[in-house]
Amino acid sequence: MMAAETGSDLGVPLWFKVPDQFNELDLDEAPAERFQRAVGNATAVMSDASDAEPLRVAYLQEAMLSQLRRQGAVYVAHCVARSEADPSKLAVAQFSILVQDAALSGTQPLSVLVNALKQPGTTREVGLADYPAGEAIVVGEEVKVVLPVTLSGRVEENEHRVRQAQVLFPVPGGQYLVIVGVTSESLDDWPHYVAMLDGIARSISFTDPSRATIADRLAGL
């Protein structure tokens, strides 16, 4: 089941849907309260997990949220569930929306941007794809995230392998890019998150879906 969301307060007119498994995070909430809620959610999903596992999930949530906020995220949702690949483990992912200035111009601005985003010699893959909201850029890569402290609070860099995929939509007019993405270190469950991202990307609309025009209706015939 999909839960409808409106993004009209995200800086651009935007509508989208996210799976019910994702819970929106309050970016203005006190970190301590958000951390405790994350621990409670993880414990509820997997009551037989070790005491350290929910704490690890909440810690990584805050670490990834901090990075997303620095990148300009205007919407973030968190998903905690039993791993499809290994039900004895928790699988965690974060879905985000970023709105960035773009000033796209020219006859093929996305093709130019694709070339700019490519990084030879890395795991990054970049291409173009068609969605109901129009042509978009799809980016996928595996990165290493270095956290400055351990779960116990000890100052010691620890590294995590994280996969992320993004779909970049030009907002009509070309002034902004809406970046829809999913990030997870649950690599065994990655195909499920990519499928979820594809579903979310296909729900993106820059016009209110409840106000379909005659042209929209005819196009659906």
Structural class: alpha+beta
The low-confidence parts are: 149-156
Task: Assign a percent range to the helix content.
Answer: 25-40%
The H-and-E topology, N to C, reads as EEEHHEEHEEEEHH
Report how far the terminal alpha carbons are from each other. 25 Å
As a percent range, the share of strand residues is 35-45%
Tally of contiguous helical segments: 5
Cross-sheet strand order for the largest sheet: 3-4-5-9-8-7-6
- Round the mean pLDDT to the nearest integer and report it: 81
In angstroms, what is the radius of gyration? 18 Å
Tally of extended strands? 9
Could you say how many structural domains there are in total?
1
Largest sheet: 7 strands, antiparallel
Shape verdict: globular
Can you give a write-up of this model?
The chain has one domain. With 221 residues, it is α+β, with helices and mostly antiparallel strands. The strands form 2 sheets. The protein has a 7-stranded antiparallel β-sheet, sandwiched between helices. The radius of gyration is 18 Å and the shape is globular. 29% of the residues lie in helices and 38% in strands.
